[in-house]
Amino acid sequence: MAPANTGGAKMFTNLIESQSHRKEFKRRSSFVLVTVAAYALILSGAGVASIYAYDASLEAQTSSLELLNWVPPVTTAAPKPIQDHPQPVRRPTTSNAPVDRNVDVPIRTDAIARTDDPTKVPDNVGTKASTIPPVTGNFRIGDRNVDPPSASTSDSGNCVGCPSTPPTVVVPDKAPEPPVVKPPTTQRVTSSVLIAKVVSLPQPPYPMIAKQAGIHGPVNVQILVDEQGKVISAQAVSGSPMLTPAAKEAAMRARFTPTILNGQPVKIQGVIIYNFVLQ
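Request: output the structure for the sequence above.
Response:
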């Protein structure tokens, strides 16, 4: 009887364990299902949010577009009509036939065309020109070669640019006048004249180094004044090197009245003397 009780106890224990395993399996299954559902819901929400965010970014890009370059459509131009080539200029030729006042049309012993007429081919080719004068237009075959007084061997109707009268050279009776010599644009004036035209003459400052060194004396500055009375150039011609920079700077700031010569404003050139005196 003891073994039978032992087997029943084992079956009861296995039954209890299988029921506990079943509960744990259900709990795990529920956890997996809830986890999968939560992830699916989160991924779905993220996908919908990303779609809305992408649409918003597209709208922002569309509103911020800027036209940088614009290429207009290319229109094909209509083909230009082919222009007719101009006719070659035909120059008149001089006839060496004598003039007969009793005839009204040129008379030739043979019909000889001009050498520049491509429509007429000579019968014979040679190195010597024919002695019969060439003709164009109406003529008559006869026993001599003569032209009427008004006849011309040139085709005046087809000649372009042929003058109706012979060219004449006009020689003027009066010789051409010599060109007018303009007065020099720069006039040299004395210091007294230059001072008389002064509008503004700033005094130069005494350089401290020259004052401490006891340097003094006059400084001559040659200036060039333009047509408006403004100094455009200043060069020191004499004086101490310690005093010349200040004198040149003061001379460049000077102003003068414009100088008029023969009704035209001119430049003037002169010398300003600055005298540096120690106090």
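Residues 25 and 137 are 130 Å apart (CA to CA).
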